[in-house]
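ugh ok so i messed up the first submission bc i forgot one of the chains. this is the corrected input, ALL of the components this time, i swear. 311 residues overall. if the numbers dont match what u have on ur side tell me asap before i send this to the collaborators (the ones from the other lab, u know who)
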Amino acid sequence: MGFKHKDILGLQDLSGEEIYLLLNTAENMKEINSREIKKVPTLRGKTIVNLFFEPSTRTRTSFELAAKRLSADTINISASTSAVQKGETLSDTARNILAMKPDIIVMRHSISGAHHYLAKRVSCSIVNAGDGAHEHPSQALLDMLTMRERFGRLAGLKVAIVGDITHSRVARSNICGLTKVGAKIYLAGPPTMIPQGVERLGAVTVCKTIQEALDGADVVMMLRIQLERQGKTLMPTLREYSRYFGLNRDLLGLASPDVMVMHPGPMNRGVEISSDVADGPNSYILQQVENGVAVRMSMLYHVSGGELPTE
Ligand code: ASP
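and heres the new structure output, hopefully the right one now
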């Protein structure tokens, strides 16, 4: 099966088969990343623009490395250095970039749906590197790759996702993707941070306490409190949040003995996760980052038509 989409805007738009295709290619890409010379000519002659309207360290660097390892030419534009600061609209910024004939625009934007708006209006591929509180498909794919590597499967895994679900694009993309491949999702967080109707995204169980979600879990995914998106305070204090929804070594004892602990980063140590868990033997946080490059290579490869360059 080939990949039929021009863009990757979210996992909501992809089938389970397409998700597996992206993961399988990412697994092959990992082999390239372990070579001494980490470069193949696959996207030679292609131009990729990384257009970031929100801060990012991991995701932007990871997409840039992915493009470079596939031999594409890359340009980075971030909001603080772009004409957006001078009042330019998204359409105008995009139109100007398009005049330079890029093949792929990798974009992060604080408005949910900004990518869908753009994708309808341009002929080049749009890859979503995070849109507001909506989706973050590359993060969910790298999470799924890391889980599959560890357990050899995704179907039937019990995955607890804990924290600010309402404002988390990471949670939303993981719910969409993981339910399509048969994982079982348990959500926990303060009631003010669990979106109404979350079940519509996929078959999930909403738990009242973190203990209930962790019980026998194979994977525990902790989320950062999205203070920049909350608008108003949704919890009394960070200390109280941490007391009821922070992960520590004692609570981890409720999960399966070989539980994987994951976090998309950036972490607030001592708030949603204690340092001994974040750095402990069950933590896969750095493997997630490592797998991010391979997953993004796979995404760029597939939106380019998945073809090898002709000599
Ligand atoms: N880095 C992730 C994102 O951009 C998670 C986070 O910011 O908490 O969505």
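quick check: Residues 146 and 304 are 24 Å apart (CA to CA). that seems consistent at least. Residues 130, 136, 169-170, 224, 264-265 surround aspartic acid (CB under 6 Å).
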